[in-house]
TrEMBL record:
It comes from Methylorubrum populi (strain ATCC BAA-705 / NCIMB 13946 / BJ001). One of its GO terms (biological process) is peptide transport. The chain crosses the membrane at residues 20-39, 163-185, 205-234. This is Oligopeptide transport system permease protein OppC. The keyword Cell cycle does not apply. Belongs to the binding-protein-dependent transport system permease family. OppBC subfamily. The lineage of its organism: Bacteria, Pseudomonadati, Pseudomonadota, Alphaproteobacteria, Hyphomicrobiales.
Amino acid sequence: MSAVLAHRARRRLARDRPALAALASLVLVALACLIGPFLTGHPPERIYPDFVRVPPSLAAHPRSDELRPALQRLAFRMRASLEDVAQEGERVRLTLTAPKPIDERSLRLLPRSGLFGEAQVLERSADGRRLVVEAPIRRLYFLLGTDALGRDLLTRCLAAGRVSLLIGLTAALAALLIGVAYGAVSGLAGGTVDALMMRVLDILYALPFVFFVIMLLVFFRAGLWLVLVAVAAVEWLDMARIVRTQTLSLKSRDFFRAAIALGAGTGTILLRHAVPNMLGPIIAAATLLVPRVILLESFLSFLGLGVQEPATSWGVLIAEGSRALESAPWMLAAPAGFLVVTLVALNRLGDGLGEALDPRLQRGPDQRDSAGR
């Protein structure tokens, strides 16, 4: 019977085009976050001092007007002066002069800058104080611009998505396991045990979440694992209430009473009768739990209590972008766009799963199939 119900749920979900569009959007976002940072051509931590707060553009950098300032800064670090610059296609020829002989090892600064390839010395004066050097120009693209340190914002958003999705899925999974076990045991036990377990939930509900996180920071260092522990420690409360309510409803069903009458153990009843019959509401609630966790992590990171550098998340990027909203609005728009798309898609997918897995919402052909069987 469960296979039949699963087949009908898949059919109902397949007819829900907004839910399928949300699922496709989530798959694209997840694949982009996993593979994208390797394809952008920029390591997430790579800093380009010459391109700080560059606006989003399809144009390649460095442009012709950006070559001389970049080369002047590199020449200064070489302890030399830039006498002349000439661009020939995708290569640049520069003339360096200095009061002392120029050490050719300093030319390594050109490829290290990320803007140029390996340099070749074309001419060298007898005293070594004048060099004519040629190097290929590397073309850099910043499709979503750069941040306040000169890091590619697209790469940062994709790398941050890994952390945000990891926190959302891991914390939601932990909350799912704890909440299902706690709620099922409470509903199945009933009586005094149920009342006592519910009062424990009430006490935990009364604890302010931010105060709880601050207390954790007193004993532990802020970081990714602290966020996971803090979020998972509170997000299972709602799941426990949902599962308890479903368990109390199932206890009045004949198959549940028959299992108890036949002497089935508590573990068997939970695993073979309670949890499978609550799978629909549980999956729907878990899907809606992920965006709540991501949003909560973003809130903590915005306050500076969440993910810390060098790691990053959408919440951290949004916090950085809010501080540069007037001068560089793209720093806020880029991570906020990723976050909004993910949250909307997760919520819509959760609604679709809830409708597809709820047998009371069967319509049309499904009802006729049920009657025919």
